[in-house]
Amino acid sequence: EQLVESGGGLVQPGGSLRLSCVASGFTFSIFTISWYRQAPGKEREFIALFSGASSGGRTHYSDSVKERATIYRDNAKQAVNLEMNKLKPEDTAVYYCNARRGSDDYWGQGTKVTVSS
């Protein structure tokens, strides 16, 4: 089971980014896929999820990114993308992809996003 994130980097305040999470080794469509982030010196924070097929394929966002983020999944490509706009310096963090279904819980290695001028 593997999750690989990509798309991080340096972004100017007010800019946009798209993060991608590609999965392999498990039945992707039935898992809930979430994005978390961890800023320096802070705990890991949930930011968005896209539930699995059995849960209706619903999305949910944290208040910190609601109105600025969109999560969408492509089950055929086993990928979930997270688009964010109007980025702020406080969005600087390592962003992680998570796949969860029952006791099965997988994490990627993370991709670093720095928002700075």
What would your notes on this structure say?
The structure is a single chain. Strands 2, 4, 5, 6, 9, 10 and 11 form a seven-stranded mixed β-sheet that branches. A four-stranded antiparallel β-sheet has the order 1-3-8-7, with no helix packed on it. It has 117 residues and is an all-beta fold. The termini are far apart. The protein has strands at residues 2-6, 9-11, 17-24, 32-38, 45-50, 59-61, 69-74, 79-84, 93-101, 104-107, 111-115. The mean pLDDT is 94. It contains no helices and eleven strands.
Short description:
With 117 residues, the chain is mostly beta strands. The chain contains no helices and 11 strands.
Distance between the termini: 37 Å
What is the H/E order? EEEEEEEEEEE
Tell me the radius of gyration. 13 Å
Counting DSSP H or I runs of 4 or more residues, the number of helices is 0
Task: Report the sheet with the most strands, covering strand number, pairing sense and barrel closure.
Answer: 7 strands, mixed
Strand residue content? over 45%
Q: Would you tell me the structural class of the helices and strands?
A: mainly beta
Number of strands: 11
Instruction: Report the uncertain regions.
Output: none
Choose one word for the global shape.
globular
The helix fraction, in percent, is under 10%
Average pLDDT reading: 94
Provide the fold topology.
Layout: E1 2-6, E2 9-11, E3 17-24, E4 32-38, E5 45-50, E6 59-61, E7 69-74, E8 79-84, E9 93-101, E10 104-107, E11 111-115
Parallel strand pairs: 2-11
Antiparallel strand pairs: 1-3, 3-8, 4-5, 4-9, 5-6, 7-8, 9-10, 9-11
